[in-house]
Amino acid sequence: MTTNVRPFSHRHAPSPNRFVAFADLTEAELNALGHLGADVVTYSRDKVIRHEGDQPDVFMLHSGWVVSSGSFDDGSRQVVKVHLPGDLMGAPSMGYTAAADTLTALTDVTISRIVPEAIARLFREFPRLAMIMFLLAQEERIILMERLMSVGRRRGAQRLSAFLLHIYDRLCLLDPDWPLSFELPLTLDQIADVLGLHAVHVSRTFSRLEQQGLIHREHKRIDLLNLDELRKQAGFPQRRLLRNAAWLPQPI
Asked: Looking at the predicted structure, is the pLDDT value of residue 220 above 80?
């Protein structure tokens, strides 16, 4: 079977890492996050979670990797976003009558659907969490801005370096002790979609980064061998999030 539904439990509560990157959360706030989702559903790799044009549901990704993609009139698709655990998926479509993107499992994943009423209740009862959700949206805008800058002006090696660092930095939010390696479950075609390149160019660029001693690649495993030089190659500063800002609402 494609999906498997289990009763919700705090073991499958949304990962707080994206939220605690901005502030230390109280027990009440953590509990509120834990009650956002409904039943947890498991999807196997390559299964579509939601099609473009479907009801604009919002999901919390608990484990695994998911890609968001849009379609063109000729039937081709463009990967626009890679989701990691703790991400809210589908939220940009909340104000529309139909979903703007397709969500597809890159790996086996567990997710829970979040009804809009639950998000509205969170905004009413936990204004600091609501503000952090707003800040998370702004973080996504910066990521999109840098992606557009890369596609518009950066060479292939800079685009790929920035993408690998983006994935690594996000994994470090999940675990500050994350090693300098990770499994990258995207295909060359999917990476090419994200970077605005051809798959052959991506393959050659991987080889170039290996020749420079910046990475080592074996199948889907990526080892980052020289983080400082890779950041120089990417051409973007390492941005640090502002934590516990004085202007955040006081916790309830």
From this structure: yes
